[in-house]
Design brief:
Elements lengths: L3 E4 L4 E4 L7 E6 L10 H19 L3 E6 L6 H10 L3 H18 L15 H13 L3 E4 L2 E4 L15 H7 L15 E6 L14 E3 L1 H13 L3 E7 L3 H16 L4 E7 L2 E3 L2 E2 L10 H6 L4 H10 L6 E3 L1 H22 L13 H14 L4 H20 L5 H18 L12 H16 L3 H13 L2 E6 L2 E6 L2
Parallel strand pairs: 3-4, 3-9, 9-10, 11-13
Antiparallel strand pairs: 1-2, 5-6, 6-7, 7-8, 11-12, 14-15
Helix pairs in contact: 2-3, 4-6, 4-7, 6-7, 9-10, 10-13, 11-12, 11-13, 12-13, 14-15
The protein binds one RNA strand of 75 nucleotides through helix 1, helix 5, helix 7, strand 12 and helix 10.
RNA sequence: GGCGCGGUAGCCAAGUGGUAAGGCAGAGGUCUGCAAAACCUUUAUUCGUGGGUUCGAUUCCCACCCGCGCCUCCA
């Protein structure tokens, strides 16, 4: 089955392959580093991670660029309030962002450029846009003229009248010719960071940076551009306008947008009290695995309703899979031989087909769990041998290359030797039918993150995380 | 008002023109000293509402209702 991706540009699912047949060139709008990212941001980044992984496991190479927006109005305001230079202010949040990504096992894109390191490229792009006749200057700021671009709006399909009517146009701010026009190069005010340019001192407009960095690392036309749905307009529309008017070529072939995460059915907001960063959730004792699972289990084009019940359910689901993996790996005696079964192969096929179907992660999970039940059942009835176990482990391996939730996070643990000693002590107690002592030992270990399980071949144990 | 996404069991959620995957939670059972894990049974005659097309619709068409989002910085 070919990989099908929903392309916002055509509003249909299209078969995807990189234009050069080998390397997928992909750009993602990254964080604006004026604060910690919230779980809504992370939903989008987690989706991008799944896309990344699926692309590579489909046999293509990948060159993925994700920008860091480190100069922008909110940053300037926040740094100014904190009384530090913006570079110093943003550095802490860049670091925090990478920490958060690491917790969620989000693979690092091949290139993570910062906007402030690419000012010359941005200036060059403005010059090209100006040369093509799509820019004009007012009071030291340079704007993009939308009226000169008939194709404007092809991504968002907002009709221009509604943009005018619905928008609270910031006409007070600058003297734009047309309310829809957007700034390419912003004249800096006193005290604001500023770079020299042929159009006067200033700083890049927000939309400009993505166009410039995408072209710098991926070329004038590339395969996939991702971001949250809210970015579709105006950000992505404006990226297209700038880029295509400068190059005369299509910018991104596929535009892929992740739906938003809601909390308790509502948009996250600080005033609603339902606004969470990753750190908030970790501080409450939730596991990063469960958070990753939850973020990724709902297909990206569907709004994801985040709840703490859902988070607990995600943790239980992971536990089921880990228990199954343990059962395959060790501990439970399997009868000799292996049994003819197409279940694992079928599950792998369904798993891949689901992901090929516009990253249907829910369907992919269904395939895995269906297999888990069948395999557990076969083990109980003695029709599952070591050969079948290796098939099952291969399936789990494939699953985990995408979902990456099977390895528990490393944590402080009771030393193995001590566990072994206590397990032996408890076994002796049980032999002496001193169940009170046996239960005390088991409960004590459980409280310290070690789970005991009595089976036909003795007591098995494992760390709970 | 315009443009989108969605409304499937208590919760999350897949899916198809032919009669509802999967996960979590709940109930009963098997196993166990008791547990845990696992398994079995059970939980939607029904897929927002009303029409229509069809032999047959949750799935296609129309209308409507509801939730969320974008149209202004925003993942």
């Amino acid at each position: 089955m070919p990989f099908k991706l929903y392309n916002s540009l055509s509003r249909t699912e299209e078969a995807f392959a990189p234009s050069d047949g080998d390397t997928v060139r992909m750009y993602s709008c990254g964080p604006t580093v004026y604060n910690y990212v919230h779980i809504g941001n992370l939903r989008t980044f987690a989706f991008q991670d799944v896309l990344r992984r699926h692309v590579r496991h489909s046999g293509w190479r990948l060159r993925h660029v994700m920008n860091i927006t480190d100069v922008e109005d909110k940053i300037i305001a926040a740094a100014s309030a904190a009384g530090v230079p913006i570079g110093e202010y943003t550095a802490q949040y860049v670091e925090a962002f990478f920490e958060d990504c690491a917790h969620l096992r989000l693979e690092r894109p091949e290139v993570v450029p910062a906007a402030t390191d690419h000012i010359p490229q941005m200036i060059g792009l403005v010059q090209r846009i100006a040369k093509a006749g799509h820019a004009y200057e007012v009071d030291g700021s340079t704007y993009f003229r939308i009226s000169g671009l008939p194709s404007y709006g092809k991504l968002s399909r907002l009709d221009s009248r509604s943009v005018l009517v619905g928008a609270r146009v910031d006409s007070d701010e600058y003297g734009k010719d047309d309310a829809r026009d957007f700034v390419l190069w912003k004249a800096s005010r006193k005290g604001e960071p500023s770079w020299h340019s042929p159009f006067g001192p200033g700083r890049p407009g927000w939309h400009l940076e993505c166009s410039a960095m995408a072209m710098e690392y991926l070329g004038e036309t590339f395969d996939i551009h991702t971001g949250g749905v809210d970015l579709q307009f105006p950000h992505h529309e404006n990226e297209i306008a700038q880029s295509e008017s400068a190059t005369g070529k299509p910018f991104a072939r596929f535009w892929v947008h992740a739906e938003h995460l809601l909390v308790d059915g509502k948009k996250m907001s600080k005033s609603e009290g339902n606004f969470y960063t990753l750190r908030d959730l970790l501080d409450r004792g939730h596991s990063p695995d469960a958070i990753r699972y939850l973020l990724v289990a709902t297909p990206y084009r569907k709004q994801l309703n985040f709840t703490f019940d859902g988070l607990r359910a995600a943790a239980s689901s992971i536990e089921r899979l880990r228990n199954f993996a343990r059962r395959l790996e060790d501990g439970y005696r399997l009868p000799d031989g292996e049994y003819a079964s197409a279940a694992a192969a079928r599950a792998r096929e369904q798993f891949r087909d689901s992901l090929d179907d516009d990253l249907n992660t829910a369907g992919a999970l269904g395939a895995v769990f269906e297999y888990v039940r069948a395999a557990n059942s076969a083990m109980d009835s003695g029709t599952f041998g070591p050969g079948n176990a290796s098939e099952g482990l291969a399936l789990l391996g494939e699953f985990d290359r995408i979902f990456d939730v099977m390895r528990p996070p490393s944590a402080a643990r009771v030393a193995r030797g001590e566990v072994e000693r206590l397990v032996e002590e408890r076994a002796a107690a049980r032999r002496g039918r001193n169940f009170a002592l046996a239960d005390r030992i088991r409960d004590g270990l459980a409280a310290r993150g070690v789970i005991l399980r009595d089976g036909p071949s003795g007591t098995q144990w494992h760390y709970s995380e």
